[in-house]
Amino acid sequence: MSIDWQDRYDRVIHQSGFFVRHRSTRFIHAFFFRGSLTRALFRWLTFEQFVRRGRKLAVPDASQSPSHQQEWLTLWEQTEESGLPIPSVLWLWTLVSAFFGMAAMLGLLSMSHVAGVNIWAALLLFAALPLLMVGVSLVGMFLPMRGLSGHPVMSLLVNKLGLHPFRSRFVLLIPWLQWQLQRGGLAFMVSALLTFFVFATFQDVRFVWSSTFIEQNDTMQQMLAVLAWPWHGWLDAPDAATVAQARFRAGFSLGGTGDQDGLWPFVVMAMLVYGLLPRLMLSVVCRFRLRQRLSREISRSSLPEQFFTIQQHAISRAALSDTPDDDVLAIVIRDPQTQCLVGWRMPANEPDLVWNLGLKSWQDDEQWLTSFDGFSSKPVVLVTELWQTPMGELSDCISILQRRGIAVVLMLTRRERPSDRADAQERSWRYFAQKNQIEVVGEASL
Prior knowledge:
InterPro entries: DUF2868. The chain has helices spanning 5-14, 16-22, 26-32, 37-52, 69-79, 87-109, 119-142, 152-160, 170-202, 217-227, 240-245, 264-300, 303-321, 362-371, 392-403, 422-436; strands at 117-118, 207-208, 331-332, 340-344, 355-357, 380-385, 408-413, 439-443.
């Protein structure tokens, strides 16, 4: 008798909400979140495409096929290349941004040998414009995402990075691209600051100010004091003498020489507070937002279970067909006095069970399996309904017990269900028990 695997696969998909609540997520998170966040993202996107297309891994020997979900994921990673953008492209973006930051600062400082560096140009280029771009990025983060068509910059980046296969996953791609843009902005500002300090070490840098409409030095001092308010408790704003000496009028020499460099600390602090710090904060927010969204999607997805079912479908049909039809399960009476009865997704009110696996979080089940001391006195009998579907999480539970040197017997119990699929379900459980090297028995009906 053959098993209707397509029907089982459809039931797995329709029960995805059940998987979300009960399946193991710890090792799945650990698998996908290895390495950088960028690698985690594209590892998951590639895996998602693999499963949705119903592709199967090539396993040359069914007898040596993986029996646990983690082993299947490892095999998938060994045979499939992730859609990660070329790392050199990401590094090139960072280097190009740093180069533009250095070039912009050198261009600005090159005016210092003439009359001094105009403080308005420095504030505009390295404080006002970066702050404005951060504001634009913040607005873009909270706009509704209806696809890449509404984000021409993001769409261009997707094309340049060769991410066409993942265009439909813009919910994850756009936060990642926003994060990369902020990283480029950070490289620009850091490079500009380092260039300034290197240049100022070997060259006298003088900042001056000039204005057609600002006639009074006091007005300029008040404006600088307002801009310096965020750091006024740590560094004072330029005083009246410094502002007066730094004023430049066309056709006139500078007011003095003693304090002409007094504006550079103000300019550097403005670059840090208005140019670098907002970029850094936004980059952290973008990274956190991406990680949170990716983690939530992995936790709520039924793709790992679908993947496991598809691969089992590919290798088990031949193996199950070799099982003799007349091989009858041994019948054993459930006895809580002589057996340590552990349930697998049995009803919550099931009597005589010391623990019911699969109904709580994986962390709770794992902690109980590794810490419970009552296994030594009685044999462990894992009780489950015949109509349940063998899952990777159950294999992991069995592995924990086997690593502790505990022998496990799988007991199948029947409830009032239609009998047309009983043989198929039993053969499926037999194969599962064979892969996990445990004995399977039937429960005696009293």
